[in-house]
Design brief:
Elements lengths: L1 H26 L31 H14 L12 H11 L14 H14 L12 H13 L1
Length: 149
């Protein structure tokens, strides 16, 4: 009985040593200390969203929207079919007449989408909820409107 306990103890200790040794051997350079962190650069420039959000419109449909915005809502950016922040700023100016109360910041957030949905519901067959989510119903109605421009 005593030899069985001794054998089990030796096997356990040997296994633990083997695991520890293998773990240390495999660690190699991965266990090296990380390089000291460099100081982060600080900028005083403002950050503007660079993303394009066409809400499913094709380039030609988005160009129609941009032409509309240029004619009536002070859009002076490129007519390139890419609805970026300048296009959305002009849309937000337009959507003020559809109860958009948020900032004119060029971000197609939920408030912007809700105002767009109110317009689309009144004039272009949108039947969904005014929830600020640009789902398939919103996108389809937005496309119908763009095609009519």
């Amino acid at each position: 009985m005593r030899s069985t306990v001794l054998v089990k103890t030796l096997v356990s200790v040997t296994t633990a040593i083997g695991i520890a040794a293998g773990g240390l051997a495999a660690a190699g350079t991965a266990a090296a200390a990380p390089a000291p962190a460099e100081k982060a650069a600080v900028s005083t420039q403002s950050v503007a969203p660079l993303s394009v959000n066409n809400l499913g419109l094709s380039v030609s449909q988005a160009k129609k929207v941009q032409r509309f915005l240029a004619k009536y809502y002070k859009y002076d950016g490129a007519i390139d079919g890419q609805l970026g922040s300048e296009s959305w700023k002009a849309q937000q100016r337009w959507l003020k007449s559809w109860d958009y109360t948020g900032p004119v910041d060029g971000i197609a957030g939920s408030g912007t989408i809700k105002a767009l949905q109110r317009f689309l519901k009144t004039r272009h067959g949108y039947t969904g909820a005014i929830d600020g989510i640009a789902g398939t119903g919103t996108r389809s109605a937005y496309e119908r409107w763009a095609n009519r421009l």
